[in-house]
Amino acid sequence: MIVVTGAAGFIGSCMIARLNEDNFNHIIAVDDFSFPEKNKNLEGKKILERVEREKFFEWLDKNHLEVEFIFHLGARTSTAEFNREILAHLNTEYTKKMWNATIKYAIPLVYASSAATYGLGELGYEDSEVIIPDLKPLNPYGESKNEFDIWALKQERKPMFWAGLKFFNVYGPNEYHKGRMASVVFHAFNQIGKTDAMKLFQSHNPDYKDGEQQRDFVYVKDVVDMMMFLMYDRKAKNSGIYNVGTGEARTFLDLTKSTFKAMGKKEDISYIPTPEDIRDKYQYFTEATMTKMRSIGYKKPFTSLEEGVEDYVKNYLSSESRY
User: From the UniProt record, which GO molecular function terms apply (predicted)?
Assistant: First the structure.
């Protein structure tokens, strides 16, 4: 059995699809399954059992001998969530329980951290564990993720193999339920579909022209490939915290032009002021340093932004079978 928490979510459901591709069909899907829109992400997936999030540790106590690996991807992921009690419960304390359970039962663990831990990137975007205590996330979500990373690194007892993954700007199928937290590709597709045009935020930084703000956009298929690699490799000496991106920052203009092209529409791009309430916390550049992931043997090339957007738009967003 392989456990995937956050199973009905964006990355979790794509991870289950990827596991199924490699004939891992005894999947234990863990989540809060009370959201019908998210549950669509699991249709057609081969799953052995669904376990409610709050009952999982009770389930694990009874079934741990059959569990081979745990992907803990469940979390409250909204950067607009300011209820610190919810974030502490779902992102920090729950993950501590998962950490201790995997030690107790000798189960390898991959868990979701976040590139939101890097804040404005004052210390760069290198996944060095030395800088983690000094990072300054911009919101309570990023703080909750960084708090767990700091806690994990301080622990004397650790899982037999573990990896914390700092996901950068992930896009791709099964993010349809995320609303405003969905990727810019998803929002561009919808806006272009309705208006034949796309509005991007202006730059309020003299070092960047309008539309040339940059992000490390990573296709979800690359993300799950990296997680599969970690599951297959799982050497104790390679345990640690890793960036999950492409290592190449691209502009919002590049992304938008790629979306117009994939949709077969003429470009019509304009700019609107960045809302003042987020202007002082707006990131103008993020780029994952991917040396560490490469250094442990991950060799697959990353999907280019153009290739990823084309696949997402043509084979999912524009398709009747989007999931």
Answer: ADP-glyceromanno-heptose 6-epimerase activity; NADP binding
104 is in an annotated binding site: no
pTM of the shown model: 0.96
Q: Within 13 Å of residue 194, how many CA atoms lie on the same side as its CB?
A: 7
How far apart CA 261 and CA 254 sit, in angstroms, is 11
What sign does the CA torsion over 256, 258, 262, 266 have?
A: positive
Hey, what amino acid is at 173? P
Structure token digits, residue 280: 């002082």
311 marked as binding residue: no
Domain positions in the chain:
2-172+217-247+287-303
| Residue 201 annotated in ligand binding | yes
Query: 51: helix, coil or strand?
Result: strand
The 10s digit of each residue's pLDDT in 33-63 is 999 999 999 999 999 999 999 999 999 999 9
Q: How many CA atoms lie within 13 A of 64 on its CB side?
A: 16
Annotation-wise, does 203 bind a ligand? yes
Fold of 2-172+217-247+287-303: Rossmann fold (3.40.50)
Q: Look at residues 181, 222, 93 and name the one whose alpha carbon lies nearest to residue 145.
A: 93
- Is residue 211 part of an annotated ligand binding site? no
DSSP H helical ranges for 35-122 = 36-39, 56-63, 84-87, 94-104
| Catalytic center residues | 141, 178
* Per-residue model confidence as pLDDT tens digits over 286-310: 999 999 999 999 999 999 999 999 9
